């Protein structure tokens, strides 16, 4: 395969838009393929691998691959890149950037031949730092037909891809059970009133894959009620004007090295009735669940009923929102979308009936949180997702129902108490909530403890940093049949590795003191714990955690109110000096607001006016000098 760089004039024209570069290659069958290659400005050819999108254009964008290559940027993803989009999205807690290859179909062909996709995949694997488990194929119109065609030819083609997204595709003739056999994730888009390509053909393909072929990975289909043929700006929308999650987040969640995802279960709670006099209510998706992962996002929207209602928190990570302005009698229907960490989403609905008369009290909904696994002797119970549908304030009462006799609860009358001094075994704790009218409900959470920390067994465990090394010291009040301590270290307080072994005293009724020095400490935040192992090789004790923060103090950042309506105050109080940059980013990474200051003092305060911003979730980014220090979530009401 020969790769060719096209003429300098074309190259210069695309460099102006970033890193969308004109390239060309000669395919194995002798056909020349001109294409655009997009890599981000900070592309690293040897670091973390990048997901890849192969984009296939429509009929009118065909060309010779050289002087006509710019036609590829007329529609869809290449158009967005040309306009400055960085193909960077915040998903699963971090920013991720796509590489994009956009080949041009020759005018000699009336449809996309599969060798185009094959050559793009071969080129990417040979020349780019690509994540081969996340290669996506997307396209519009004629290109959408090409997206169907490649995996439809044979299952092995589909296994090259992590997902496909055809938009308003031409109707292709294939064995679509090949896509089901490949367990290929699919999200198809069309408009009912498309007068150019057949929406009923797309529906038939999707239904056939899901039913006739009995696909383990069920295909999604978004059928717009209007928009005609040109709905690709809806399907490939880079924000959330038309769907949430957007197609890019969905593609990022797909990884063909992982088993077929179990989709989440959406639960919006039961229908209920309130009085218009009250005028507000609460909805929660907290009873939703995900069997093989976690729920990443909850989205609420009204789908029918009087138009005067106002959703306070339409997008969140806990599913709880207040609905205001329920002052007109009628049935308000609210749709809940639950998105899991693999990008899959499920919808359900709940109805709030508003009556002009008196409504009965609705009992609270008690949420004791997910069951907890802990390898140490402490954890936190989580009851703060409990709520009262008709808006009463709640009181809380935690009670242990079963389990070992030894434990300590910091406060049994708060939503999220600390739980300490756990022994090995299974505990069950009941949370009871009570509303202002005296109605109560209960929920139970299990705590699976693999810790065996006995009272007064370990007298203390502490540490400090000096000259780049961390010294840990501890003492035992008594020991029985002990062999050694394993010193464990972690960067997040969850995943630990053993960094050293210290011999134990064996058997003693007297206090024994020990120490260990970690010479490999390179700064930052570290967590340490001890594991005591007996002569039989069994773990008999886990200590509490010691947190050491060395030489890299974080920015002390406060911002309020959050959620914010118009003005948000930002306070930064730390020792860093230099050029301070505050940026408010959209969820796709675009800078919406920006402020800069020369920070000479420890304390600096400012106000950001966000009144004109669309309600939703944003990210507040704090940079001092050339170092990124903080990214925090901001909710605009």
UniProtKB/TrEMBL annotation:
Signal peptide, first to last residue: 1-22
Pfam families, from UniProt? Esterase (PF00756), K319L-like_PKD (PF22352), Por_Secre_tail (PF18962)
One GO cellular component term of this record is:
membrane
Answer yes or no on keyword Signal: yes
Matching entries from InterPro entries are given as: AB_hydrolase_fold, Esterase-like, Ig-like_fold, KIAA0319-like, PKD/Chitinase_dom, PKD_dom_sf, Secre_tail
Q: Which UniProt keywords apply?
A: Signal
Q: Where are the transmembrane segments?
A: none
The PKD/Chitinase domain covers 269-357, 365-452
Spell out the protein name for this chain. Answer: T9SS C-terminal target domain-containing protein
